[in-house]
Amino acid sequence: MNTQKIALFGASGEAGRQLAEEALKRGHSVTAIVRDETEFKLKHPNLRVVRGETKKAEDIVRYAKGHDVVIGFHVPSKENPREHVEVARNFIEGTKKAGVQHLVTVGHTFGKLTEGTQEAYDAYKQVTQAQNEALKLFRNEKELNWSYALGVQPERREDNGKYQMSSEIRFANPMGEQRVDVKNFTETLLDEAERSTPELHSHEDEEL
Questions:
Q1: Confidence band (pLDDT; 50, 70, 90) for 125?
Q2: Domain region containing 84
Q3: Whole-angstrom Cα distance, residue 24 to residue 114?
Q4: Tally of domains in the chain
Q5: Of 60, 68, 65, 23, which is closest to residue 44 (Cα–Cα)?
Q6: Mean pLDDT of the chain
Q7: What is the C-alpha radius of gyration for the chain, rounded to an integer number of angstroms?
Q8: Quick one: average pLDDT of 109-138?
């Protein structure tokens, strides 16, 4: 495995920190871009921590430059789900402008419905819609080697009629889609980041 220079955006959450730790254990160099660098306590010789915003396309361009792969975390919220779609667009355009060809984006909420009622599910549907809209942006992207991790829509249980979150995460890329258990998320995400750049959209070539 070749070691890589990873630009990790939105790393201040628990999932981002765990990913940074695992990446460093695997021998990669990590630049963690966070809102407040004083709150990111992880220390390592191959780790650099800087302040930046995923909402600012110019920050993505600035800090992605010189890296082999960009990994971006952004959690869609019920209060402003459309923001997630705009951030996904920022990641796509910013990564390309920075001259990086490999982008891995995480749009999974890692949370659960506060209650399994129909009302809670209806409110959560806006998050699911934002994730699906972001996925469309990625699937229309022809220049990047991309991967996108997103949640599985809550499902109604047959025994009590209430909704529950899935323990799986969807991983989509130009070659298809797979599902993995949440507990294997960090390893799978790094495997995606380490994946060699495939011949994108090879199925289109086959149709010619």
A1: confident
A2: 5-207
A3: 34
A4: 1
A5: 23
A6: 86
A7: 17
A8: 80
Alpha-carbon distance of 32 to 69, in angstroms, equals: 12
Percent of the residues in the chain that have a pLDDT greater than 90, as a whole number:
51
| 34 pLDDT higher than 80 | yes
Q: How far apart are CA 180 and CA 171, in angstroms?
A: 8
- Residue 64 confidence (pLDDT) above 90: yes
Q: Are 107 and 88 in contact (CB under 8 A)?
A: yes
Q: Which two tokens stand for residue 148?
A: 């996108």
- CATH code assigned at 124: 3.40.50.720
Tokens for 202, please give them. Answer: 């090879």
| DSSP3 helix / strand / coil % (the chain, rounded to 5) | 40, 25, 40
Helix (H, G, I), strand (E, B) or coil at 31: strand
Residue 190, token pair as written in the block: 């790094």
Choice between 120 and 11, residue whose per-residue pLDDT is larger: 11
CA–centroid distance for 51 within its chain: 19
Residue 110 in this model has a pLDDT that exceeds 80: no
Cβ atoms within 10 Å, residue 118: 12
Q: What are phi and psi of 32, to 5 degrees?
A: -95, 120
Phi, psi of 105, deg, nearest 5: -120, 140
